[in-house]
Structure formats: structure tokens, C-alpha cells
Predict the 3D structure of the following.
Amino acid sequence: MNFTITRQNLHNGLAAVSASIPSKTTLPVLSNILFEAKEDAVWMSGTDLDVAVRVKVPADVKELGRLTAPGKKLQEITRELPEQPVEVATRGEQIELKCGRSNFKLNGLPADEFPSLAEVDFSEGWTVTGKDVNGLIHHTTFAVSTEESRPILNGVLWELREGSMRMVATNGHRLARMGVPAESGGAPSADFIVPPGALQHVQRLFKDDDTIEVARSGNHLGFRADSTEVYTRLIEGTYPNYDQVIPRDNDKVATIDKKALESAVRRMAVVASDQTHRIRLKFEPGRVHLNVLTPDLGEGHDELEIGYEGEELEIGFNANYLLEVLRYMPTDEVDVAFKAPERAVTIEPSGDNDIDYLCLVMPLRLLD
Amino acid sequence: MARRIQVLPDVVANQIAAGEVVERPASVVKELVENALDARASRVEVAIERGGKRRIRVSDDGVGMGREDALLCMDRHATSKIAAAGDLQGIRTFGFRGEALPSIAAVSRLTLDTRDAEEEVGTRVLVDGGQINSVEDLPRRRGTTVEVRNLFYNAPARAKFLKSVSAETRVISEAMTGLALANPQVTFMLTSDDRSLLDLPAVDDAAARVGQVWGADQSSTLILASHSENGFDLKGLVQRPDAAKPGVRRSYLFVNGRPFRAPQLVKAAERGYRTTIPEGVRPWMFFYLQVPKGHVDVNVHPAKAEVRFKEWPLIEMLVEDAVRSALEGEESSATFDTQLAAPPLVVREGSTGPVAPSPDTQMALFMAGAEVPHEAEDPNGAAAAPELEPGATRARLWQVLHTYILAETRDGILIVDQHSAHERVLFQRLMDSFERGGEVGQRLLFPLTIRLTQTEVEAVVDLEGLLERAGFEVEPFGGDTVIVHAVPNPHRYFDAERAFREMIEELTHGSELVRSAKNQHERIAMTFACKGAIKAGQKLSGAEMQELFDELFATDLPHHDVHGRPTIVRLSKGELARKFGRT
Ligand SMILES: Nc1ncnc2c1ncn2[C@@H]1O[C@H](COP(=O)(O)OP(=O)(O)OP(=O)(O)O)[C@@H](O)[C@H]1O
Ligand SMILES: [Mg+2]
């Protein structure tokens, strides 16, 4: 293997890939990056076995070949190199970097030891825009569960349908669901449960104007735009029927200024219990009262003017859950809909728009 | 009619009294050693032969007696220690009845050698079965030696009840140990058939005495437990929970310097240990009580083995609180240190004899000016968090093996077991919240449908109210199924379904933990803590570790989990220095 590459291109490629390298691993080859010199470009790959990232960087290839070399070290060296072409070459099992008068040789490992990436046939897949996918990821991933007894809930449900797609995440206490219209291009409907880590790589590596091909092979999912590929293991199992638990009869709706509510909740949260983070919202016509009372700590009270005509109702919330949900709401005003103190509360962007976004927060029980 | 009632001759009366006072050789040793201590001896030597059955000799370097007193002391009710009934109230001496010597003399052949500071020459009195046989001059140093031979030679019925030589020897040694613990500043020697059983040179404090008797290994497991309340004062040494073992327990109680038995105080101490030691473990304890005049009656038991307090509940509280607050401190946590110094506990400055008693020393069980170091109490009542490295606003925390959290403190290293620590946090939190009505439950989007056994379902139904107050909203669904609509949410890795199942199983079928609980509330809180706490193997972020650390030190007993295991193990810089050969 022998190629010449600009310092900037080498740096970009390494930066894209090394984020997928595990920081600690018992398998030494996983700390390495796989270089594959092809006709007109060099491919770099990194993986932690769950997710793999592969990028193509332009280079002047003189000799084809493959080799793995330590990712973090290469990245650190490249960061310090002068802005000059870098010549990269194999020297036995070592990789050699020459740039101006700098010269490095690092011990590598044979390319055969590097795990082979999932073979995904992209001709049988879906095509989505970077903007759509990134939007869905951004608005839903925060809600996945961190508790490991139900692995399904550790993933984001991605539903691809004729004409639309959706992502859903929940930990059973709150839920986020977003949908966008999408051209399926004739591909069949499908449901994937995707680890949030993989989606973060997708969000990081694909730009809004990328056209992303998505395809499945066995229990792997691949994402590809022209110079970037992401592969991930899928979480197996059936996602719980979330649709059934989203209330359709929340007949009391309060329209609230998002920023005002956010900062009031944040103030209340200061005095809320460290464990339950419980605050109370009491809705009455034209107004919501926020209350917090934490034994051994103290209490707080606040109120906001809101658009609300329904009857008086008090609901307990985990302030953190409310804040998370509000943070991702894309409009200045939000519609908070509810029915009874123990029932699911939904929060949606308010006003005339076609944003298909819904968050749901389960209340905390009020004990009196 | 002939007169039938007659006054018994003294000899007979003394023999009868002896039945109460002198039960076995150990009673003789106890009475004679007490007399020596009352005479303000600084050294008491006891020699016994054949378990004291053949011979007991007690020598002291106390004030001694003049000739007149040496004869008088053989009479019943002859005492120098009290003059009027009222004197008994604030009694500081062991003796007060004037019965011991005549009782012993009545059932043995007794030789009394003594001399006081005033007389040129000492006195030897020979008594046989209570009859004074001779009185002689005897050159000797100041002090007293009493030798008792052939105990019960004239009371064969009593002699028959004596146990084996080794059994009697053991009881004697035990009795002397108690007195030695009460008087660490006095030298005690016990030899049995020329074998030395106790060799206890005077030391400064009680812990040092414990160390002399049972070894430094044992005394270094003790921590100070002190508490005072309206004139009642308790100083004690109790065992660190991690060092406490099942089996033989050493529990010694002293009131105003006097050993006594009181199972209810041992129980009170055990209450203080509750949730910090497993069931069946018996921590050692040494309590030195000081109560105001008139609050303890020492004259309720023929051998003075028991006392009666005017306010038992107060004394029990004192003991329980002292133990509790000792366990709140860092000293009570487990440690890697091998050469721990026993905590100094000065209990009594010699004994306060009957001669020219100074009121100060009489009232001061503790030596004036003796600093008793003990955890500075936080005004908020919360246990003090360990002192961090100077300059560090937060302890630097490392997670090791995804199980332990390491922190650097001013004095070395703390290792926290994340699961145990979180157990303590959850236990206290739920107990506190029971008091205020209960824990809030997080409603579930997908209620849990849980199948249980019939008995488990019954337990759930029985406990429904309490479970609800713990945050679990459970609905029996008929048959073997329950539906859980709301659950507590103690941390983000909490597996509610598993915790619930395991709790119900443990509550239904019982466990050591469940049995150690005092009531249903504790039972629920303990099982919840145990099943709900962050597990070993859970990777934690820096912020999560910090939060756990802060929460742990906000609990009352941060150093102990609810199973009686340590939450924290300390490694001091001293021990590190020793390990690396820096000292
Ligand atoms: N070792 C001793 N040194 C000095 N005086 C002693 C000694 N032993 C006894 N006495 C004197 O003899 C008296 C009688 O002792 P005895 O033990 O019979 O009665 P007590 O100690 O006064 O009361 P009790 O019967 O409660 O022990 C004591 O009050 C004390 O004055
Ligand atoms: Mg006496």
C-alpha cells in the first residue's frame, strides 16, 4: 500500500472514523483503523463490533493494499503535521507516514484480523434525506431507556412506511415520536430497532443535503451516502405497541409559551427532591401554578398565564422529564393535553404547522 | 411457756449470711479484690490454688488497717465505708454492708495480715470458722493480705456444689477481669497454682486494658461510644460492625465504676446496631455509666451483681443513642489498617477509697482534663462527610471494576461499594418518606403484568398499602397475576419489574434481612433498598458517583449497609506508609 493524501483529508478521515473506536477493548485490532487503498481513493474503517464507520477520502494511490494501524496515535500525529502532502506506505507490518521532514513508523496489524463489516446490498433498500433522518434522530433519541432489562427500549424504533417514516423512543416513563413524509421509492414497509449510538454516528457523519441509502442485511442495517457508510447491529424483538397507549381523548389542552414554561420548571426543579424531581402543575382557566414542596429542603411557587379554558386539574411531574421534552419542542408555543391526574400527558408543537411531533410524559402520583 | 425464739450466736448468723455472700471461690476473690480497691490499692495480686478451693490469697498495697480495725472488721456490719443509710445513695465504694469479711471467715480458715500508715508494726489475725484464734504482731509493709484456706471446710453441703477446678478458675478469672476493666489504672495479677492467668500492669485507659486482656487485635476493633444527658453520662467502647462476629460476646457494664449485669442494656446496645450488623452477630461492648447521686440502687442483689436504676428507659436510651452515634462516624467503617491504635478511654482514676475521699475525684469517673476524642457532631445531625484533600472542592472519584468508588481524603483513601452505599441511601430515604406519607410513584406507560405464586399474591394484597407508600401501585388482576401501574424511580438503571419480583419473593419467603427488620416498614424499606439499589457492575458517570457519594454521607449511618456489611473501607495514609516501608 502506498498513497499520498493531503493532511486535511487524512485528518478528516481519521476524525470521522476514530469516534467509532472503543476507548477500552480487549481485542487490540479494534483500536486500529483499517486502511484500504483502492484505485482512486482510500477507505478508512473503524468499529466497536456493534457499530462500524467507513469513509472514503480522496488520495493519490500508487500501490493498492490494506493494513490496520493505531487510530488514536495516527489522529494525534496528523493533528500536529504541517499543511503538506502526506505519503502513507506499508513497511512490512508497519505503517509509515512521511510529511515534509517528519517521518513516523507505527506498528500495525494485518488487515485480515480486522472484523469484516456487514455486507449490505444497497440496491434493495430505502432512500432518505439527511435532513429527515437527522431531524427524527435529534427529536427522539433522548427518550431511550438506560435501564438494561428491556433491550428493546434501549433502541429507537424506526418505522419506514409507504410515503412516511417515523421514529419513536421511550423508557416507559416518557415517550417521543416524530414522523415525516418520505418517498419510499417502492421499497417495502419495515420496522427497525436501532441502537442510539449508531444513530448518533449517522447524525454526526451525514449532512442535511446528503441522500442516504438505507438497507438491511440479516440483523444489520447500513447507511450510505457517497463517501460515508455506517453499519449497525439491530436490536431484535418486537417493540411494544406504543400507539395503543398514546391517549386520543386528552380533552383538556393548555397552550403555553415554551420558554416561559421551561424556565419556570427549571426554577422549580432546584427545590425538587433529588430523587423524584417532583413538581406539581395546577391548571386553571388562563393560568398554571407550579408548586414544589420537598421535605427537608423547602418549597417554591410560580405561575404563568396560559391559554386554557378547561376545568381545574393538578398533575405531578418529574421535572427532568418535562424539561427534556420541552427542550426538543420546535415551536415557541406548545400544547399540553391531559385528562386526569394519573393519565398520560401529551405535549405537541402548537399552532398552524405540519410538524408531526408528539411527546408523552407519564405523571407522578400525588400523595396527600 | 418456754421461750422459743432466740438470737443466733454471731458465728451461726455469719454462716447463714455467708450463704448469700459467698457462693463459690470467685465470690471470695471478688469481695477481697473489691476491698483492696476500696482501700485505694494501686496493685492487687491474687493467687489461687485448686480453683480457690484450697487457697485464695489477695494482697494489696492499699491503706491497710490498724490493729483495732483489723479486729473490728471481722464483726458483722462493721464497715468504714458508710455511716448512715443516706450514705448509700452516692456510694462510690464497692463495699458498704460490712458483711464480706465475717461471711468469708465463717466458712474458711482465714488469715488477715495488715498494717496502716500510722502503726509501726502490722497485725496478723487468724480466724477459724468465724472464731478469732489469735492476734499477733507482724512486721510488714503497708497494705493488706487476706488468705482464705479450705473454703467451706465446715459447710460440706456447700462444698459439694462446687464445680471442677478449671470451672471455678474460669469464674474467678472472669470476676477479676471485670474489676480490672473497671480500674485500668490499677495493676492486677492473678496466678493459679503458680501459673499466671492475668498480668495486667496499670495502664491509662480502658481500651488499653481491653488490649491487655484480649490482645491489640481485639481492642483495635473498638470505637468510642459516648453520650450524656442531664447529668447521666455514658462512655463506652463498642465493636466496629465489620469486626463483630457471631459467638462469644464480651459485654461489660459498669456504673459508677462498679460492674453489673443487665441484659436489657445489652439489648439496647443491639438496638443501636440495628441495620448495621447481620442477625446473630454479637458485637463486643464496654459501657462505663456515670449517674447522679440517688439514681442507682446498688443494694438489690446479695452478690451486688445487679443494680436498679430509677429510670431504666433513660439508661437504655443513653446506651442506644451512644451506639447509634458511634456508628454514624467514620471511625466505625471498615478498614484495611492493620495497626490501628485502640481509642483511648479513661474511665477511672484508681479507686476512690473510703479514706479522705475528695469530692472531685469521687464525682469524676473520668479523669479531669482527659480529652475523649470523638467525632465532632454536625449540628444538622448528619454524619460528617470525610475531609477531602485540601484544595479539592469535590472528592476526586474513580470507579473501579464498575463496582467500587475510590475517593481520596485528607487521611488516605476511601473505597465505597456502590451497591451497599446505595442500599443505605435508599433505605433511609424510604424510611424517611414513610414518615411523611410515602414515596411518589412514577406512572407507567406500559404497566407491568406480573405473575406470582398464590402465596406471593396474598402477600401483595396484604402489603398493598405499604407497597403503595413505597411507590408501587399494584392492582391484583385475579388469579396469579398482578398489574403494577406505578413504580418508584430511584435511579436511571432501575429495573422495576425485577426489583418488584425479588422484593415480593423475599417478603413472602423471608430471609435473614427480612428477619432482622423491626417492623413491616423496615422490612419493605430493607428489601426495596436491597433490590432497588444500583448493582455492582453498573458503570457510573462522574456525576452519578458524586451524587451517590453526597447522598451516602447525608444518611445517618453512611458506613454501614442494611445487611450489616460495610459500605466503606478505609485505607489510611499511615497504613499505606507502612506497606511501602515509609515508616
Ligand atoms: N484490703 C483492705 N484494706 C483496708 N481495709 C480493709 C480491707 N478489707 C477490709 N477492710 C476494712 O474492713 C471493713 C470490712 O470489710 P468488709 O468487706 O467485710 O465490709 P465492707 O467492704 O465495708 O462492706 P461489704 O460487705 O459490702 O463488702 C471495710 O469497711 C474496711 O474498712
Ligand atoms: Mg467489702
Remarks:
- The pocket of magnesium ion (ligand 2) is lined by residues B 31, 34-35, 95, 100 (CB under 6 Å).
- The two ends of chain B are 91 Å apart (CA to CA).
- Residues 349-383 of chain B have pLDDT under 50 and may be disordered.
- Residues 435 and 521 of chain B are 10 Å apart (CA to CA).
